[in-house]
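Duplicate of #3305? Posting structure anyway:
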């Protein structure tokens, strides 16, 4: 197999901390493994390590300022952000972490971070009290919620001679994390993915329906994640007010559960991976009134509901061995037990559990907090993250599933 880092575009960000000397080793390891590395260094980073060393090792001029002073040449952080398959900031100081978390774009490194389209990793390095300060803790949690991967610093003797947590992780270990990232971040070129998203509306009459609060954000984030990895995606969605921009996503709009099932059959049969992120109504009115139901007379009203098809269970019953199907479980109590029941009953390979007990998780929000339960009995829990970052975690898990 070709070395996983061969030809990968990596932006290595270096900030002003004593651990910057270790970044030279990281740079050497990356270049030796065949990666193309562009170093971006903050002005204070240059106090610790010279651009000449970094340029010689990377084979590329080091970028630090927005302009080259004598020629006026502009360095485009946007181009760099687009070029990078991965951005790694090592060491990341408290100051840079704070700027990244709060969008303070006053240097080339932070503007490149804000423009980065792909994954970002940071290896914090600072004194133990700075590391434990609530502002650092909060900023790191914010970055994690944006999907930034934090390479935790180790405990040991620090530059201040104090002993504690704050030593930048060793370059060899950062290198291994980078390799693992690319190994896990599988390409989905040539793969077909089918996804259900959003709510279903079950009509009572021409103006009323039974529905739920699903916004479609989770399913759309999954569609975009799969499409960004090259998959051909079919997104079957209930009534939502979001748009897709990726040309690799074919969107099919439906309203009711029955329509969703009918539209999903072919894409799920043909898919390599299927994901059921929709919040489907389990029941629908037995019949839809032809005209608007009138209030006149009766004090109360009884609605007769009939069962809707279970889309996930129906389609997963016909699943081939080569297919991976993933369901969601939206729970309010007995979360694990219920999620495991759904995994087995619906013949799924994985269930993504999100609980309405967790703040920021579930319906409508831009964030979610999930655990992924697999049929082999493994379970992984993730912190609160943006739905796009959650989608990355889910797709990574699908990619490493043995089929
Ligand atoms: O759309 P958002 O606002 O971003 O919110 C995201 C979400 C909360 C809707 C999403 O993360 C989620 O949890 N989706 C599944 C919601 C749900 O209906 O869960 P459930 O536990 O009732 O269903 C279990 C699984 O069976 C789900 O994969 C569901 O899509 C599927 N199902 C359920 C009933 C049914 N009739 N047909 C189905 O396919």
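Output from current build:
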């Amino acid at each position: 197999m070709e070395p996983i880092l061969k030809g990968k575009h990596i932006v290595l960000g270096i900030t002003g901390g004593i651990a910057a000397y270790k970044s030279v080793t990281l740079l050497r390891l990356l270049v030796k493994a065949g990666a193309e590395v562009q170093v971006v260094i903050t002005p204070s980073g240059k106090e610790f390590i010279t651009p000449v060393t970094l340029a010689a090792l990377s084979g590329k001029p080091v970028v630090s300022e927005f302009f080259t002073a004598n020629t006026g040449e502009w360095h485009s952080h946007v181009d760099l952000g687009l070029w990078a398959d991965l951005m790694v900031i090592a060491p990341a100081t408290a100051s840079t972490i704070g700027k990244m978390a709060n969008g303070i774009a006053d240097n080339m490194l932070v503007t490149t971070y804000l423009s980065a389209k792909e994954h970002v990793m940071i290896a914090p390095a600072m004194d133990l009290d700075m590391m434990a300060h609530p502002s650092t803790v909060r900023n790191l949690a914010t970055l994690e919620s944006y999907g930034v991967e934090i390479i935790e610093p180790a405990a040991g003797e620090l530059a201040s001679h104090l002993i504690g947590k704050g030593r930048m992780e060793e370059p060899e270990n950062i290198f291994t994390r980078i390799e693992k990232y690319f190994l896990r971040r599988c390409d989905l070129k040539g793969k077909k993915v089918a996804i259900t998203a959003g709510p279903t509306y079950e009509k009572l009459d021409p103006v009323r329906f039974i529905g739920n609060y699903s916004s479609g954000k989770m399913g759309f984030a999954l569609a975009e994640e799969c499409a960004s990895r090259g998959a051909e995606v079919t997104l079957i969605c209930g009534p939502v007010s979001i748009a897709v921009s990726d040309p690799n996503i074919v969107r099919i709009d439906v309203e009711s559960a029955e329509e969703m099932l009918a539209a999903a059959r072919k894409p799920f049969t043909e898919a390599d991976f299927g994901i059921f992120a929709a919040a489907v109504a389990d029941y629908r009115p037995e019949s839809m009134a032809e005209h608007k139901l009138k209030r006149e007379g009766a004090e109360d009203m009884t609605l007769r509901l009939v069962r809707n098809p279970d889309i996930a269970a129906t389609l997963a019953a016909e699943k081939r061995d080569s297919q991976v199907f993933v369901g969601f479980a939206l729970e309010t109590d007995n979360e694990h037990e219920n999620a495991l029941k759904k995994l087995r009953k619906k013949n799924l390979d994985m269930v993504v559990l999100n609980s309405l007990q967790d703040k920021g998780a579930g319906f409508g929000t831009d964030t979610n907090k999930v655990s992924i339960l697999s049929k082999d009995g493994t379970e992984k829990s993730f912190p609160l993250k943006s739905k796009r970052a959650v989608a990355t975690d889910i797709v990574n898990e699908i990619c490493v599933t043995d089929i």
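Confirmed duplicate; merging threads. The chain has a mean pLDDT of 93. Residues 203 and 209 are 4 Å apart (CA to CA).
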